[in-house]
Amino acid sequence: MIMAATLHAVVAEEGTNPLLPHTYELVVGIFAFLVVVLVVGKILVPRVQKTLAERTDAIEGGIKRAEEAQAQAQALQQQYAERLEEARREAARLREEAREQAAQIKAELREEAQAEARRLVEAAHAQIEADRQAAFAQLRTEIGRLSTDLAGRIVGESLEDEARQSRIVDRFLDELESSNAQAVR
To answer: Is the pTM of this model over 0.70?
Structure first.
């Protein structure tokens, strides 16, 4: 309360209200306020708005670029998945073709081996028959010579005549073959 009494005493002496500013202070304050409003309104606000617009553009552009990059990544991932699936199908097709070719080659090789085996058996039979015929001819000649020598010794005369010798040998061998055939039965 003392303070209120002192304030009241000061107001009564000066005759002015201490809450109201002096006129010159009011004019200077208004002028300073207008300068501040003009500086802020003309210089700072456009700069702040420009900076805010740039940041907004940067953020929106960044978001847009991120969305585009994400869309591209998803598209690439889809392409990758499609190519991977296509590669798997192609690999399965190639494996199946390889199996078919392997089976075909195996069958061809088996046929070739069987044909070669038949050819070798036939060639061996032919060779055996040729060797048998050669051995038979050689044996016949040797038997003929031995039999004529033996017959000449037994008979005591020479059997040098080839026609006679050939007839004797043929007759002897025919008799020998017929006796062998009867013995085998």
So the answer is: no
